[in-house]
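README: folding subset

This subset contains proteins for which both the sequence and a predicted structure token string are available. Records are stored as plain text. Below is the entry for PepSY domain-containing protein (116 residues), shown exactly as it appears on disk.
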Amino acid sequence: MKIRHRYLYIIGLLGSLTFAAIAAPSVSDDEHHDDVMTAVEKGLIKPYSALQHKVSQQLSARIIKVELNEDNGEWIYELKLIDNENNIIKVEYQAQSLQMLQIKGRHLENVIKAPK
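--- output ---
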């Protein structure tokens, strides 16, 4: 009987710790948000609306996912797009200048617009 109570106690404790870990707010998300806001104020990141405009000028595809990451002090927009043929394209833009750094995907000749 004592062994059964120990197992129930351990299972209850593990369940409580798991719930606490899931329910607790993520400190890293808050810190990342603060870092992004500071970078925007310093002019290190162009707004998302400018990025959307740049993508629409350069590519024939819709944005379906956006991530903003810092890599060695440089902010990078990482995008996932989908074209009219349902091909997935991955693109990276430097967040301050909105210069395209990298593009990957199939049938890119149908996605990249000719410069005007």
